[in-house]
Amino acid sequence: MQRYKCIISYDGIGFSGYQVQPNKRTVQSELEAVLAKMHKGMAVKVSASGRTDAGVHAKGQVIHFDSPLVIPMEKWAMALNSLLPDDLSVLSVEKAKDTFHARYDAIGKEYRYYLQMSSVRDPFQRNYAYQYPYKLDLETIKEASQYLIGTHDFTSFCSAKTEIEDRIRTINAIEITLEGDKLCFRFVGNGFLYNMVRILVGTLLEVGTGDRLPSDIPDIIAKRDRRFAGKTAPGHGLYLWKVFYK
Amino acid sequence: MQRYKCIISYDGIGFSGYQVQPNKRTVQSELEAVLAKMHKGMAVKVSASGRTDAGVHAKGQVIHFDSPLVIPMEKWAMALNSLLPDDLSVLSVEKAKDTFHARYDAIGKEYRYYLQMSSVRDPFQRNYAYQYPYKLDLETIKEASQYLIGTHDFTSFCSAKTEIEDRIRTINAIEITLEGDKLCFRFVGNGFLYNMVRILVGTLLEVGTGDRLPSDIPDIIAKRDRRFAGKTAPGHGLYLWKVFYK
């Protein structure tokens, strides 16, 4: 048996999220179906750095699995990709130690959120950026984002359905940059709670329109109550960009 | 009755091309269905600058139609877009003279063809660029492209099924530029025959791999026979970018 670590990318639109669900097309079920085929029906369990929701994209999701197959390293990605559907691609495969775990060994993640600031619908961006027709003040958004950096209890910024008890996370960096008519929000942190990036973006947008003040952010954090933060931005603007390991 | 000129954009993947065909989803049929709805069932004929094939995209297709409806000019695009599917969008609507014709008045067009030069499949580009894993010599492609510029009989570079007799066209400019890992071919000319841009690209790629020489191009033109040119590049890399009028 050899453990393999893979970086994968997927267009989230065609998937009901990452994790296996009965009768749904998910990233994990497509990967496990292909591995079962390669292993002549033997079940191969795939573990990821974390789940992504329906419609959420990945540029650099990380998974691991164990296999007894003897395949030259440079052929692994091609072998997997030749069987995978074209909205899911293995970017790289490498050997990992038996103790490597895609989820437990991750020390940080980068997510990006893309907003298309346009009043006219762009058919090419409909699945890949959140079309936002309202005027935004980028400077106040940037100012507000600085209050989020650091170690906080992010209970206000995660889904009320979140079961995990420890909601303390560290955000190392938030960068907001204009790329043509698209606004890119880049979040780097040690971990993100369920819906956290989407709620952070939704709240920052409410600052950008003037409905909230940058200085409201510390109060929202202090409330530790989802109802005080902004709306959850749609999933199709969100990308799991990179997972960091030691 | 007032004639309207519109610039429209569509993601070609979900359409069986521009033109109405029985039992197929086409751009023209979607537009005419929405206009019929707005006109309480009255048929409104839509004319475009030209057809596009299945899978071919448009960033700036031009259409015209006539309507008796009294709608403030700034509301027209929104009214149409609110009824159109999200892979087809009206970018602008303006009043045109009764004699304006989207096809007959066009004096030129710009097409772009996008190639993704990568051996790894990118899920986000699968419908929007032709993934090309082979090594290309860009300088010889550029050299070959210069032989295509000017006024020529492009019979060798159009589908053998082309019914039109006059195959003389003028190409004003061909620009080939690298944008990250994508190669963009930009063609500007007074008109393009059926499959012409895709065959031009397919032939230039065969120069880029070394299977043909740049100096073969004048011979291929002189043959006036489709069999002497290269393969037809896939439709999903092609974009009708702009239509020019006087």
Automatic annotation (TrEMBL), chains A, B:
The active site is at D53. It holds the Pfam family PseudoU_synth_1. Residues 8-105, 144-245 form the Pseudouridine synthase I TruA alpha/beta domain. Keywords: Isomerase, tRNA processing. The keyword Signal does not apply. It catalyses: uridine(38/39/40) in tRNA = pseudouridine(38/39/40) in tRNA. One of its GO terms (biological process) is tRNA pseudouridine synthesis. InterPro entries: PsdUridine_synth_cat_dom_sf (IPR020103), PsdUridine_synth_TruA (IPR001406), PsdUridine_synth_TruA_a/b_dom (IPR020097), PsdUridine_synth_TruA_C (IPR020095), TruA/RsuA/RluB/E/F_N (IPR020094). Substrate binds at Y111. The keyword Ribosomal protein does not apply. Its EC number is 5.4.99.12. One of its GO terms (molecular function) is tRNA pseudouridine(38-40) synthase activity. Belongs to the tRNA pseudouridine synthase TruA family. NCBIfam families: hisT_truA (TIGR00071). Formation of pseudouridine at positions 38, 39 and 40 in the anticodon stem and loop of transfer RNAs. Homodimer. This is tRNA pseudouridine synthase A. The lineage of its organism: Bacteria, Bacillati, Bacillota, Bacilli, Bacillales. The gene is truA.
